[in-house]
Known about the structure:
Blueprint: E1 10-13, E2 16-21, E3 34-37, E4 45-48, E5 51-54, E6 56-62, H1 69-72, E7 73-80, E8 88-97, H2 102-106, E9 118-119, E10 123-131, E11 144-148, E12 156-160, E13 164-166, H3 172-192, E14 199-202, H4 210-219, E15 223-228, H5 231-239, E16 244-247, H6 253-260, E17 265-270, H7 274-282, E18 284-292, H8 313-320, E19 323-326, H9 333-348, E20 356-357, H10 373-381, E21 388-392
Parallel strand pairs: 14-15, 14-17, 15-16, 17-18, 18-19, 20-21
Antiparallel strand pairs: 1-2, 2-3, 4-5, 6-7, 6-9, 8-10, 8-12, 8-21, 10-11, 11-13
Amino acid sequence: MGLSARSCAWLRSWGARRCWLRRASPGSPVPSSRPIVDMSYSRHFVDFQGSSIPTGMQKLVVTKLSANFREAVALRRDVPVPLPGDGDLLVRNRFVGINASDINYSAGRYDATVKPPFDAGFEGIGEVVALGLSASARFTVGQAVAYFRRGAFAEYTVVPSKEVVPVPSVKPEFLTLLVSGTTAYISLKELGELCEGKTVLVTAAAGGTGQFAVQLSKKAKCHVIGTCSSDEKAGFLKSIGCDRPINYKTENVADVLKKDYPKGVDVVYESVGGKMFDLAVNSLAIKGRLIVIGFISGYQTQTGLPPGYVEMLPAKLLRKSASIRGFLLTQYFSEYQMALKHLLEMCENRELVCEVDLGDMSPEGKFTGLESVFRAIDYMYMGKNTGKIVVELPHSVNSKL
């Protein structure tokens, strides 16, 4: 028989499962709280306010540094479910987000000192199933929350309560905002200097973050051009307000820009790199601004760098008084909470389309379970997705939530 969550909050201490208990026999005074080792849970599950928490779970772990995600990452089974500390939450993940940078992380490109093994994944959404004592002041068991934190590719994740965002419900649409939405919002606001009448070019416009760059630029009353890889994606872009979708499989992007936009583009939201980056630089208007939020064309290479002609870059920028700015979301956390709050409000009010791709149209079907993360990443790098790729983690057969 498990312990009731109403009288305990899990702690990580002394290497064992312990809890703060407030128990008393009928009519007796309530004793003071004290930590004790709880030996009353069953062999496989701990009852926590009506939700069965298994003692073991699955998660994805980077076991070797490589840009080949399948070679770098392994699925670990029957890993102990972590216990939240005093200010932490234990979240049962229902959906996890796929990002192009997942393979940069598995290759160790964000931290030269990191050594395997370490947990993979950046963002998740689910319910709180356990929490520390101080965290219970702001959160409750069963509450829907989302988070942006390393180690999300797991059935359960411990997250500090200060890094968790309450959401109205466990919908994958809200997950699209944590990285993809905020990247577009903050970078365009801080670096794009958008204003009415400007021309904006968004590369990979039908992707996870491109969809938001298109919509936010339109809300700023700009003229928006978006590159994509199919007529279906071009149709999606039109539906969210893109003025001129360009299917680069059937049209020459350079020719279109030269013919239709002879004065160039004022702002470029660029995530592809390589030849697309070179084309975007060449298409900048006088005093144009190019925002680099990624270069996916180079991520799968050994160096992580796309091909390009950087030796000509200074002359090209000087000739137009143009500029290039890089953007990395983790360096803009002071703006993050405000941006996410605004995006969530827009999403709730149906002022923003948050397109989710769960893999329903992929040859092998919907992305379900941690084992499908590998397939989802392959799907993204083949350019198949429209919107944000999200993997659903099915309910445990023992789950009551």
